Give the backbone structure.
Amino acid sequence: MTKIIDLRSDTVTTPTERMREAMKDAAVGDDVLYEDPTVRKLEEMGAELFGKEQGLLTVSGTMSNQVAVLSLCKKGDQIIVHDRSHMYNLEVAGLASIGGVQPRPVSALGGRYDLDELEREVFTSQIQTAPTTLICIENTFDLNRGLVIPKEHIDEVVHLAEKHNITVYMDGARVLNAAVKLNMNPAKLCEGVDALALCLSKALACPIGSLLVGSSEFIARARRMRQMLGGGWRQAGIIAAAGIVALEQMVDRLAEDHENARLLAEGLITLGLGIDSTQVQTNIIHIDLSVLGVTSVDFCSSLLEKGVKAKPVGLYEVRMITHKDFKASDIETVLDAVSMCLKESKNGPANQ
Ligand SMILES: Cc1ncc(COP(=O)(O)O)c(C=O)c1O
């Protein structure tokens, strides 16, 4: 069987042998009773990594985000989110339907909120307005781009939030990609943020899981909110064991994914694909095919015939994400496949 190179997401990564071994041997207990030693160890490791008091293992990034909002806000509050964030666009309107909050989307071109605009969007509780109680930052940012939000900007947002007595939450699904890119300790990067969530099941290659971290008070509430959502789990040490391996062994190697993304993007640019190389900052490549007049769906189906999977994310937009199951030696294969697609599209019926 020909090997398929899957660049749709880093969520397609499969657990490493070390993870599978660790899962097999994990010491477990009932985590709803707070008696699973492996889960507790992972939660402590996560809290320490980000310099927060405690951690909580949840099923997914989406669950962490929902639990965080339920724990940090009241029904009827307003919360500020990036207009192009996962929380606002891709969580089945959970902010409104589960969290009961009104999301106020604010643009953040290139990953930066305009601070004046951000401040204008902060509401106080008046006869007709609901109070803004939370500002969210996504890092890395922008659905299909993986942009790094630097510490200076996080600090600016935190400063503004403090001025208005507002909490700051980070959807840090890929925040370790940002930390590795910045060569910065994750605790330093996130020091001003009140709470954040990291995904274990993306570039870190775990099968399941997300870590929510913050103050002890926040985590105590989050634990109850997770339970309310049906996310209390029993011998979850089986899952946590993979998370421990991930934090120990899979973080530094993210630099390799970033380098592969950079090299792949360079090659794709040479082939004529529309890519803003300044935005290839971590493991995500955003491709604009409008210059070539090829739709994303046609491009991706033609690519699939050549053994490469990419994800259409707009009429002419495609995303490719590098990860631990994609090797530097695969770059050439992808470039050859893209080159063939482009030749075929030029020779296609519409162009004859
Ligand atoms: C920024 C961001 N937040 C949250 C999520 C949700 O994670 P999950 O798929 O584990 O629910 C994703 C998933 O791609 C994401 O990219």
Notes: Residues 60-62, 86, 138, 171, 173, 199, 201, 210 surround pyridoxal-5'-phosphate (CB under 6 Å). Residues 285 and 320 are 5 Å apart (CA to CA). Residues 254-270 form the longest helix (17 residues).
